[in-house]
Design brief:
Blueprint: E1 4-7, H1 17-31, H2 37-40, H3 48-56, H4 64-81, H5 94-103, E2 107-111, H6 117-123, E3 132-134, H7 147-156, E4 163-167, H8 170-178, E5 182-186, H9 189-192, E6 197-199, H10 207-214
Parallel strand pairs: 1-2, 1-4, 2-3, 4-5, 5-6
Helix pairs in contact: 1-4
Bound molecules: 1,6-di-O-phosphono-beta-D-glucopyranose and magnesium ion (MG).
Length: 216
């Protein structure tokens, strides 16, 4: 039976995608690299380095040192922009759903690719509701590899089959399935249709419904 939930952060509990986008846009403009809001959709859930490599594409050749510098610069812009995140930035349904799960005795972990996940969680004031954190520092291989979610399950002391992953990114659903976990996809079917359950957002999530669907 299901004993744990692993939540992605960006796009699931809060919408930091906009801040990531603005930081990448600023960097791209400075570098004269073409980048748009539409192109940013492809960076959803993708690690910092992979994101930068996707933006660079074949447009320019950079040395490893230049790539490192650009990753740091983008992160500075991002860190500045998340300074003012508050509990009001939790996405609709996130808080009641976390509380519902906790009341049902379900363990909760964070499974985010971000190295800034801890500070975001603290600013959202939900750190006390989370039993374990798997973030951008936890494993080597980024999603769609299962490593991050397997690490989260291990931290919770649970088997993969006892865990449900909640994700908004295609790569995240892939990672959950590769880990042999249950997957709930938030967003359009074109993006997260491979999940066991697809919902528009956490505002539509109810533990009793999910349990009935997955445990039968
Ligand atoms: P950082 P998630 C991901 O968070 C973001 O969706 C993605 O845009 C970002 O590049 C990645 O974290 C790394 O974040 O640069 O802060 O380490 O969706 O896995 O919670
Ligand atoms: Mg995400």
């Amino acid at each position: 039976d299901i004993r744990g939930f692993i939540f992605d952060l960006d796009g699931v509990l809060t919408d930091t995608a906009e801040f990531h986008y603005l930081a990448w846009q600023k960097l791209a403009d400075e570098e004269g690299l073409p980048f748009t809001r539409e192109a940013n959709e492809f960076l959803r859930g993708v690690s910092r380095r992979e994101s930068l490599l996707l933006i660079i594409g074949n447009h320019k050749k950079y040395s490893e040192a230049e790539i490192q510098e650009m990753m740091e610069r983008k992160n500075r812009y991002y860190v500045e922009s998340i300074e003012n995140i508050s509990p009001a930035d939790l996405l609709p349904g996130a808080l009641p759903f976390l509380d519902e799960l906790r009341q049902a005795g379900i363990k909760i972990a964070l499974g985010s690719a971000s190295k800034n996940a801890r500070s975001v969680i603290e600013r959202l004031a939900i750190a006390s509701k989370i039993d374990a954190i798997a973030d951008g520092y936890s494993v080597e291989k980024p999603k769609p590899a299962p490593d991050l979610f397997l690490f989260a399950a291990q931290q919770l002391g649970l088997q993969p089959a006892q865990c449900v992953v909640v994700e908004d990114a295609g790569a995240g659903i892939e990672a959950a399935l590769a880990a042999s976990m249950w997957a709930i996809g938030l967003g359009p079917v074109e993006r997260v249709g491979a999940a066991h359950i697809v919902l528009p957002s956490l505002a539509y999530a109810a533990w009793s419904d999910i349990r009935a669907k997955l445990e039968n």
